[in-house]
Amino acid sequence: MTMAEPVGGRFGDFGGRYVPEPLVPACEELEAAFRSAWADEGFRGELNQLLADYAGRPSPLTECHRLSEDMGLRLLLKREDLNHTGSHKINNVLGQTLLAVRMGKTRLVAETGAGQHGVATATAAALLGLECVVYMGEVDMERQALNVFRMQLLGAEVRSAVSGSRTLKDAINEAMRDWVATVESSHYCLGSVMGPHPYPWMVRELHRVIGDEAREQCRQLLGSDPDVVTACVGGGSNAIGIFSGFVDGDAALVGVEPAGGAAIGRGVPGVVHGSKSFLMQDEHGQVLEAESISAGLDYPGIGPEHSHLAAIGRARYESVTDDEVVAAFELLSRTEGIIPALEPAHALAWVSRARGELAGKSVLLNLSGRGDKDVDQMMGRLAVDASANGDDGRSG
Amino acid sequence: MSTEPGALEAALRARRSQGGKAMVPYLTGGLGDWQAGLAAAADAGADAIEVGIPFSDPVIDGPVIQEANDRALADGITPLAVLDELGRLDIGVPLAVMTYYNIVFRFGLERFASVLAERGVAAAILPDLPLEEAGPWAEAADAAGVETVLLAAPTASDERLGRICSRTRGFVYGVGLLGVTGVRDELASSAVVMAGRLKQMTDVPVLVGVGVGTPEQAEEVCRVADGAVVGSAVVRRMMDGGPAAVGELVGRFRKALD
Fold first, then answer.
1. In this structure, are strands A274-279 and A268-272 parallel, antiparallel, or unpaired?
2. Is B128 inside a domain boundary?
3. Which residues of A touch B178 (CB under 8 A)?
4. Considering only the top CATH level, what class is A58-86+208-388?
5. What is the pLDDT of residues B201-244, one digit of tens each?
6. Are A220 and A244 in contact (CB under 8 A)?
7. Kind of pairing, strands A14-18 and A10-11?
8. Catalytic positions of A, please?
9. Chain B contacts of A283, Cβ < 8 Å?
């Protein structure tokens, strides 16, 4: 199979365009504009230039020699953490911001969970001279105060979402409400492969570069595709990006969800934020609040293409606990000298747990972001863990 | 496709044929003594009433209706409880439920449509189910004799408005402005424009809502529209003053439109 344009905005039974009527023409306009831009060599050239000269692509592939030996497998990291702004989010944002300019929009609206997408959007807005408003859950603003300040430094206005669980899903609600009111001048720069058509398709295409590069790099290093490709999944953009390079091959694709936000692991099909997909909800259809250590994965839904890949059996989805994530965060820091963001630490936590099953195999992990933003939170958590263990913090 | 208008459309057409304008208030199901609120609204001259079934993520709603949703959900209201209660009440005017599509999807489309019909609810309004996605629900609703009210927005082309007008049942819900539900100081000029565009292309009753918050604004938009839907202003009254205050406010809208 290949990842083509979804027919009628649907990936099998999932996807669609479930938005308030005022937004339908905007989605249609965006779909047409993206299709035209994506077929335009001038646009592609301009984007590729920015990805190279500004974002620092291609991102390297790093083989983890020490960790591989410890685990009895061959672990390769796709280093999206080394992109400008510290995560894969910049790929999507540069594309959407160029598109917004091409469409004559003067203002970007975005949601953010951990702040990575918000920082990336604020960055692109500064680069291309657009106004930028980022919605962020009040709880996340506390957890990720550093990223709030970063966005402000970059000239964006950060507005807190105070409804519901005050996390990512509520930030999306607020961003959609803003977009309904400002649709004529604003582009909604959605940060994942979710939302109404064309977003899941468009955002995947903008992250496809991760998978395309990684496949080439793996072929040079291994002479073939890796046996397993894994990535963390909240909405699922970094996972779709890397999967897209391997979906038509033989590599096993494994998405890793947080146990507290496992849309595929614990959800059933539903419709929220513009598309039909797996969704954590109660028996009445009320959306549940996700809870995990990672603000970037605290989302009760998942992009519709992941639901489709799960439904047809092309990808499988595992979940890991916060404790496993913390252990993986420390493991990569100490063994390889790479402090990962908590989000990709989920994928590493699964690799670590599944090392028996993965013995002798080559495993490509998308290291979607760096951990600087999480250091403050982890300092608090690890100090608490240490005192609970009667540890003075100097040993180990 | 049914040719006989349903109960909601019949009531709105009757009002129009008498030379009148329709007043349709909105109340959130499960919010305080909402049953008495519905009765007060009907007694005060509502032509029909929209009853919200609370949803956790109401993306087209502003702060007032969000708060009402949150309060009702915190009190444990469920979709079926709202519908069962509507079946027990005898309000005397047609009722339409307003909710988001996931509630209906989770309930089951056919089951939701048949429960509406059994409980005597005339119509459903699902603001995140636009024309292109409405097919499966609209078929189930048609089969059960439930009217599906579609929204029409200022951003739509005339061609799109035409398709919406031919698929809507009950009335066509003109969105008065680009924005979420809520009361504004002035009626947006887009509300009157919206009403005019719709009136030019359909004989189905044209009601305008979103941003119609005072009797004066309702009167202004109804110089062109066949009626007004008033949500946040009514819900605010319900939260601040209870059913009697709702009756008083609906009465003032009624007077302004007569």
1. antiparallel
2. yes
3. 22, 180-184
4. alpha beta
5. 999 999 999 999 999 999 999 999 999 999 999 999 999 999 99
6. no
7. antiparallel
8. 64, 88
9. 106
CA distances to A173, A275, B151 from B125, rounded to whole Å, are 20, 18, 8
The partner residues of A305 in beta bridges, in order of sequence, read: none
Euclidean distance between CA atoms B148 and B123, whole angstroms: 6
As beta bridge partners, residue A75 has A363
Domain A18-51+89-199, second-level architecture = 3-Layer(aba) Sandwich (3.40)
Measured CA to CA, the distance from residue A225 to residue B70 in angstroms comes to 50
Parse chain A into domains and list their residue ranges.
18-51+89-199, 58-86+208-388
B160–chain A Cβ distance below 8 A for any pair:
yes
- Nearest CB among A17, A22, A177 relative to B175 is that of A22
Strand order across the beta sheet in which A186-188 lies? A157-161, A131-137, A107-112, A186-188
Domain that holds residue B183: 7-12+21-257
Q: Model confidence at A38, in pLDDT bands (50, 70, 90)?
A: very high
* Torsion over CA: B74, A172, B101, B195 (sign): positive
DSSP string, A243-301: HTTTTTSS-EEEEEEEGGG-HHHH-EEEEETEEEEEE-B-TTSPBPPP--S-GGG--SB
pLDDT, tens digit (0-9, with 9 covering 90-100), for A111-139: 998 899 999 999 999 999 999 999 999 98
Residue with tokens 């992941």: A306
User: With an 8 Å Cβ cutoff, are B132 and A24 in contact?
Assistant: yes
Contact flag B155-A183 (C-beta cutoff 8 Å): yes
**What SS3 state is found at A17?**
strand
For chain B, how many residues are written? 258
Tokens representing A335 are 């063994």
